Structure to design on (169 residues):
């Protein structure tokens, strides 16, 4: 029987392989792949729309923290989304030096379509799982996310707002 460290390493290696397969199979590596054929969006842009939709206006710094990206990446994302009229920049009334990013009605419509598309895909995938597999996923995945938040010493954020339960863009 393997010792605990060896079993832990085997579990970590298996989880690593599963996550790698999930990312590849889901098409998340392809920056040109968009969930909406008529509107090319990167995964980061979709996540930015999600954060702005459920959280309201955010500074680029706050959005960068939520997405765990550097400010220059978020600046580029914001410029691209603004160029598509999906977000707008406005001065923070509390501090006129700060620019806030706000999702537009067009951005909200795109975000809603993205969420609907992902929900359809997830529903299709999970409908083909055995009930015990789905139950295990719904217990195991939040547990993994919780310990990842604990490692970062932050509170987990629960999905909220339109498309709650589907934080994917």
């Amino acid at each position: 029987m393997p010792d605990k460290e060896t079993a832990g390493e085997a579990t970590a290696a298996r989880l690593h392989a599963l996550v790698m397969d999930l990312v590849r199979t889901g098409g998340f590596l392809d920056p040109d792949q968009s969930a909406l054929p008529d509107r090319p969006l990167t995964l980061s842009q979709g996540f930015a729309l999600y954060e702005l939709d459920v959280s309201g206006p955010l500074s680029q710094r706050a959005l960068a923290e939520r997405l765990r990206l550097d400010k220059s990446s978020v600046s580029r994302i914001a410029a691209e989304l603004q160029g598509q009229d999906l977000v707008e920049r406005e001065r923070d009334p509390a501090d006129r030096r700060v620019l806030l990013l706000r999702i537009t009605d067009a951005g909200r419509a795109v975000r809603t379509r993205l969420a609907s598309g992902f929900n359809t895909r997830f529903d299709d995938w999970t409908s083909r799982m055995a009930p015990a597999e789905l139950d295990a996923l719904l217990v195991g995945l939040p547990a993994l996310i919780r310990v990842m938040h604990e490692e970062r010493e932050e509170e987990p954020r629960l999905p909220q707002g339109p498309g709650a339960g589907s934080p994917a863009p």
Summary: Residues 160-168 have pLDDT under 50 and may be disordered. The helical segments are 4-25, 43-55, 60-67, 71-83, 105-127, 131-151. Residues 105-127 form the longest helix (23 residues). The two ends are 44 Å apart (CA to CA).
